[in-house]
Give the backbone structure.
Amino acid sequence: VVSSKTTANLDDLDGALDAILQILVCEQKIGWSKDSRKIILLPTDSLLHSAGDGLLVGAVLKPNGTCLLDDDGNHISPLTYDFPSVGQIHTFLKEKKVNIIFAVKDQRKLEYYKSLTRELFRDSAFVGELQEDAKNILELITKGYYNFARQVSFSINTTLHENLDVKFFADCDNLGVMNETSACYNVEENSVEFTVQLTQKGPPTKLNDFLFIEEKNINEKIALNITYTGLCSCKNYDGEVLTCSNGNFRCGKCICQDEWTGKLCDESCDNKDFGSCKAIADGYICNRNGDCVCGKCLCGYPFDGQYCQYQCPTSKNGEICSGPSQGKCIEGKCSCNEEFEGDDCSCSKSKSGCRLFEAMQFCSGNGECVCNHCNCESGFSGQFCENNKENNTLCELYIKSIEDAVLNGTDHGVMGATKFLIQEVDEDRRKSICNASECETIIYQGNTRCTLKCCYLKKDDDIVHWLVTKECMLTASFAAITTGIAALAAIIVAGIIGIACAKYRIYRLEKEEYRRFREEAKSLHEMNPIYKDPVSTYRNPMRAKND
């Protein structure tokens, strides 16, 4: 019996990276909790096999990032895929928000794991020395956990938002000074406030953006729904062009560089003098709702005031006081123009949108006109409360006049004292424009049956506009249909008879051919005395005995 202390391969490398990869991608089989912190503990006294080492056993395929564990936790393709690279593990650690604790027993290899963490894993790993018999394993887990828990790091993925620049500011040490950083370390048991600054580097290409602020360790995120108050519309600007000394001319004004101000960006200022941007001695700069530029607060959306201390009301489309054409914000409250009212100036005083034509009752007499929109009574619906459960009053009112106009080939008509116009469009365009109820009717023009689908539009004038889609198909009389069916049946019967006659003729020809073959074979036998029949017959002797 030979005694040996070797229990593994003689090389000083192990496949821990492959095991870590499976832990990261097999979330359901490992049983990670959705919102918990995720930490992997790797006690080891070896170095790591990495990408390329699988060539020794013929495993050359790159790991594809899928789970390769069966229900018992065994690897289903151990000799197919190569070891993952360190970079691949780093990517999955960030994506899955998982941290690693390296508990290294061998003092000589401790520096290897520290270097690996310092150069690549950075904030995702913690390295500690594991004592003999793993006596300090719980201590290492505790230290590693608090090392991760005391780190706070935020990020925003702006890959799809090229014109958006993001900066984070934080007061990590609670000294009252916000420094540009997205992470704080060794945070004690106190709150740390972060400020996110979004800067539009170029004109927006759309009115809305959607971003997420994510923390690197915990599975939580903050959704940012960004609404731009409007796209730049001064492409063909033809006003006065200014010469900006220390800035760029945009949309009729100078956009100044840092530390410059004025109409022409020719006035120097100190952007570091924050004193005049604080409402009180120990207050925050611009109440954290704006930037201090040249001693004045430049408020962010939707704040206003000398120190950005007021928050202005915004409408559903995200505009302050529903936009300059409807109102403006003064000390956190909207001052509306004459035609509008409400907390955010979104309520129009006009009632033109509550009826289709002047002679019509507001909301068809079935509702109340509020902010230029109809609030219908119970049982009624539609833009003008024109629908009830049984019918559409406007369709009933207009449909006969529309039928007559289409049959007469005109694009206009009169219904009572109201004029209306007809525009023929395809179905896709009608559906994209109309938001009102639709009407449908059928008309006949000779042998043509047409379906009319139409909807009405409210215009500024007192003319009702109808969009009509016309779908027609030919019709036929009963006699014509009967004649056609009879002709078709006759053709089918004639075809069947023709096929039967052809098959009978072929049958007669084949029978006659076979008869001639038999006669020729018989005469050949009589003419050739050495002719032998190629057919041999064998009889079972036992059958003959029984017979």
Observations:
- Residues 276 and 295 are 6 Å apart (CA to CA).
- The mean pLDDT is 79.
- The chain is about 25% helix and 25% strand.
- The domain at 153-227 is CATH 2.60.40.1510 (Immunoglobulin-like).
